[in-house]
Amino acid sequence: MAIISASxxxxxxxxxxxxxxxxxxxxxxTLAPDGTPRVALASSHPGFTVSAGAAVSATASRALxxxxxxxxxxxxxxxxxxxxxxxxxxxxxxAVRLALSEHVYATDTSLTLAVLAGWRTGEGAASGISVTNNxxxxxxxxxxxxxxxxxxxxxxxxxxxxxxxSHHPNGYQPVAGVKFTATDGTTVKTVWATALATDNDYGDAxxxxxxxIDPTTATALTAGLLRCDAEVYPWLGSMRSTDPAxxxxxxxxxxxxxxxxxxxxYVVGYDPAGTRYSAMWAFIDPVNGTTTASASMVQATMxxxxxxx
Length: 309
Known about the structure:
The protein is mainly beta. Helices cover 3% and strands 42% of the residues.
């Protein structure tokens, strides 16, 4: 008895094996996923790692295991009867479908299989078995959100924080790194974060990727609205950015920071002189209100706003 061929199905989580032998039952399989797994699948996948304080391209290795043989769809005539998903291919060959512990992605490469003796009754140990990857499942992208509200007014150094989650963390680190940028439309400042840190500006000790950006160092940023973006580099998979267009557009920055989408910029009002974004008060008449806005509704002091007739 021997494994003749192996492949991952298009759904990414089923390993199909063609073996020589006769049809069996569930009792024919001892996969031991909770002990010493007897069917192990190794793969490589493009991703990133940390080098010199930044995320760089790398190849990540993964080890997946087979957890159990699948069963065929329920027969309504005998709903309590479980039938193993084995198919007689003729000529002393059969196909069996095994569930994997994780998805194999379409971009996984160099898939090889190793089995221990007894994984199926009568089967011996084998390794280095080439596995065809037919998966059509894409690697999941990182999940993230800005931790601070847009349009904060700053006069100097300011903090940028991003909450990140990942399907493939490395230890306690969700991703390999986050590259933060801040721009006034001309000058771009870049700061990397390659490990979780604490943003305690609101007293909640939030664990996130957080950095301080100084708009005054080197080539200073110009006062006004600044666009901040993040590029998130996962250990496994592709980079995801808050700027999917990759243009760092400043054209609609007055409203872009209000977007409910994750892939949106973080916007700050940079006012080093403290004169651009002074506090303003709006007059609201709850009884005789109007749907027509006017400049007179916004005043520099509360007293002036209250005095609007």
